[in-house]
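Hi R.,

Here's the chain you asked about this morning:
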Amino acid sequence: MGIAEGRKVWLALALAGTLAGCEDGGLQLPGFLSADDSAAAAPVTGGTTELVEVDVEAPEVFQVTEAGLWDGRPSLGGVWVAHPDVDDPERVIIRNTENGQFVIGALFRRERESVGPALQVSSDAAEALGMLAGAPAELNVTALRREAASEPAPTDATAPEAVLDEASGGEITTAELDAAPAMEPAPAPAAAPTLAPAPAPASTPAAVPASASPLDRPYIQIGIFSVEENAGNAATAMRANGLEASVIRQESQGTTFWRVVVGPASSTAERDADLETVKGLGFTDAYFTRN
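And here is the predicted structure, written out as tokens:
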């Protein structure tokens, strides 16, 4: 028997002795190789919660459904309507009940007149709602309030589970270990796949918050559109003026609409400069938002 063969025999005997110690309880496996069911049942938590702002209708603050009129003259101030029953300016959603179009705008107070509809409509609002000059249309005007809502941020929780399943004791059985002496090279490659994937899950979640803006509200919402093409045109206008703009599709009460936001800004100075540019392009109702 050669020296190499002698070493193999001693290695096999040493391994068999070690395995026998495992079976008798004399040698404990490392925690990540233990067959403890409690470790396998431990939940893997990696989800985060992100706060977002949403517009919520507040009919208790203000709501009317009646005829509105655009007199055909151009008006300043962007999208707005005016009504005699308004106490304070409000942010509202204006719906044309005849064609289903809607737009977000401002609500102001006007003096009550004896003739004509009480609801006065600006030229920009009339265009967004598909109204013709001098032709009254039934409008629903409802006040809006901004509320914070939590959304679970998607995380890759399956990768750590897969690693734990591979390293759990359920797969390391006595029968599998007893077969090791028959295939002498088996113990060497067995350690490599177990240790190599371990650092991978730790690096994946760490990269998520790296790109977060230091500002609480790094975005500027320039408007909400009921027509996707109009939202795309607004975003194109922003990009043409050197701003980073995005179109976000959302739904509310069964209605689909598109938000256009600019950002994210990396500093207060950058955000203020972007807001000035946005308002200079005619979007005077733009405001800061979290997303």
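One quick note: DSSP finds nine helices and eleven strands in the chain.

Cheers,
M.
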